[in-house]
Design brief:
By secondary structure, the chain is of the alpha+beta class. It has one domain: 60s Ribosomal Protein L30, Chain: A (2-Layer Sandwich). Helices cover 27% and strands 28% of the residues. The protein has two helices and six strands; from the N terminus they run E-E-E-H-E-H-E-E. A six-stranded mixed β-sheet has the order 1-2-3-6-4-5. The longest helix is centred in the middle third of the chain and has 18 residues.
Length: 128
């Protein structure tokens, strides 16, 4: 039997759109951007390294808010507005952020456009 769906807000934000949904122990987070959810008018950080670090901090905060750790990540999907230019630098920040732990299955693709000055978008699926 399917359990009720839980909608999880963005950490520190008050968007009516949830950052994630959870059902039957699976968490689906979509559209995490390198913006300050607690202050959406703040400037997006410059450079893919800083934007990647911010998106990863959002993902980790979301997991923590749900009493989960990064080892519960099953899949990660990353969209980059300039794949050829930014992939290697994004990948270095991503790998360093997770240390020597097991990494989730991951895909990365170029996307035609992201909001504002965003260079990266992050989606993940995690399990309880």
């Amino acid at each position: 039997m399917m359990q009720p769906i839980q909608r999880v807000p963005f950490p520190g934000g008050d968007s009516p759109i949830p950052a994630a949904t959870e059902v039957n122990g699976l968490i689906f987070a979509r559209g995490l951007l390198p913006i300050r959810y607690d202050n959406p008018r703040a400037r997006v950080p410059e450079g893919i390294e800083q934007q990647t670090a911010l998106v990863l901090s959002h993902a980790k905060a979301l997991l923590k808010q749900m009493a989960l750790t990064e080892d519960r990540l099953l899949t990660v999907s990353i969209g980059l507005s300039n794949l050829a230019r930014d992939y290697e630098r994004m990948d270095r920040v991503y790998r360093a952020s997770f240390g020597n732990g097991a990494l989730a299955a991951r895909s990365c693709a170029g996307v035609a456009e992201l909001p504002g000055e965003c260079l990266i978008q992050f989606d993940f699926t995690a399990a309880r």
